[in-house]
Amino acid sequence: MQSPTHPAPAELSPLASRLVVVVLCLGALAGALTQTMLMPVQRQLPALLDTSISNASWVITATLLGAAVSMPVAGRLGDLFGKKRILVACATFLFAGSALCALTDTLTPMLLGRVMQGLAMGYMPVAISLVREVTPPKMATSAMATLSATMGVGGAIGMPLAAWIAQEHEWHALFWVSAGIAVVVLAATVLLVPSRPALNPGRFDPFGTIGLTIGLVATLVGISKGTDWGWTSGRTWLFLALGLVTLLAWGRHQLGHPNPLVDLRTTARRPVLFTNLAALLVGFGMMAQSIVVPQLLTMPAATGFGLDQSLLQAGLWMAPGGILMLLLAPVSSRLLTNLGPRISLVIGACFLGAGYLVGLFFMTESWHMLLIMCICSVGVAVGYASMPMLILENVPMHEAGSSVGVNNLMRSIGTTLAGAAMAAVLTSKTFTLAPGAAAIPAEETFRWTFLIGAVAAFVGALLALAIPKRKPVIDPPLEARVGEPATLAD
């Protein structure tokens, strides 16, 4: 029996369930597109915004920071206040941020808009946790695999799409397209996604949110800017120290709070902890190919190893990898059903590592890059589908959104670490084609990046193997958890 104040929600028809999954996939795809939409004009940003190179780099970093904060917080808010409300809020952030960026030529409004676009990334963990509530059991695995794949698809197809838009139209069109997609996502979410009662009767922890925000932002700024500022710079270590100290204090606050933003005791359970560590390494591996492959494709042939492709051509070489991720969703679903998410994650991480090993020996032709991307895409598709399943199997449903959000955060931290590590390796040995020309990474540094990516992926596979087999967590009856509506903590 459900609580009389929270009646059992009506079961959706198979068609309605599929429509909801399509909407959730579109929302996740829209958020993922924001991560790569500025790559075609990244080098022109200082001139476009009339600012310095250092200031312009914050346009990329701002979205990363917004997403890092949004994913765990949005997941928790979805558990507390109902997931549809948070999905609508995230879609609204995406529209408002995109429209603001489309209307400005100056740095400060652009940064604000990009942060808002990053906050929209909270759509993803909330959507994943909602799938289990709105789809029949026989459809849930395939729906989750498809939804998880859209994250990689958005990143892969975003670059060629953005390159074509930037090439054929004025650069603000990139943001108008994003705003248009956001309107569709917002309308579809309002009209087609059903409301479900909040599963967690706790209270929101504003101080925990502030602490997590400061800790994450300071740490990620230190990591992402370390190469630009210098790893021995006092500014770099100031941000890192501030972030780590704040996160330690935040952790202590969470452990003593009756309604923590993130239940650290749940995340410390071995299945959840090892899944999150594997997510960090798989995120690292996924980002490595997104950084290295475009550089090799667009590097001039005069270097002796560059493939001399335009940005649009490079994007088209990379796009099949994203399409492959989507096509592999049924395969991922079958693997999850037959082998379980633990072994599926091992398989995904091994494919990712194998793609990088191929890159060690084959990097002299454009089709070599296509081969690397396709092999890595198999790993990303299977790995991304496995991780939320592992999380949801090992946490109670009333903590699903928060726990999936933390998993997505760990993956995001992995991509940030990959960006810093790849930048450090690629700048460790350079040469120039002419006096005064820009420095170009040496060929051997690219091979090192492939090797580092492979090691990260295979270590992720070992961590996945270490995840113990456990029975799914059984939620207590709703009557035992539903009390007063969620409010702000005192």
In short:
The chain is mostly helical.
What features would you describe in this structure?
- The protein is mainly alpha-helical.
- Helix content is 74%, strand content 1%.
- It folds into two domains: 14-205 and 257-481, Growth Hormone, Chain: A (Up-down Bundle), CATH 1.20.1250; 206-256.
- It is globular.
Separate helix tally = 19
The percentage of residues in β strands lies in under 5%
Largest sheet: 2 strands, antiparallel
- What name is given to the CATH topology of the largest domain? Growth Hormone, Chain: A
**Amount of helix:** over 70%
Give the count of structural domains: 2
Quick one: CATH class of the largest domain?
Mainly Alpha
Given helix and strand content, the structural type is: mainly alpha
Task: Spell out the key features of this protein.
490 residues, mainly alpha, Growth Hormone, Chain: A, 2 domains, two-stranded antiparallel sheet, globular
Task: Furnish the topology, listing elements before pairings.
Layout: H1 14-36, H2 45-48, H3 53-56, H4 58-81, H5 83-102, H6 107-119, H7 123-134, H8 137-168, H9 173-192, H10 206-229, H11 234-256, H12 264-267, H13 270-298, H14 311-327, H15 329-361, H16 366-393, H17 400-426, E1 430-431, E2 440-441, H18 443-465, H19 478-481
Antiparallel strand pairs: 1-2
Helix pairs in contact: 1-7, 1-8, 1-9, 4-5, 4-6, 4-7, 4-10, 4-17, 5-6, 5-7, 5-9, 7-8, 7-17, 8-14, 8-15, 8-16, 10-11, 10-17, 13-14, 13-15, 13-16, 13-17, 13-18, 14-16, 15-16, 15-18, 16-17, 17-18
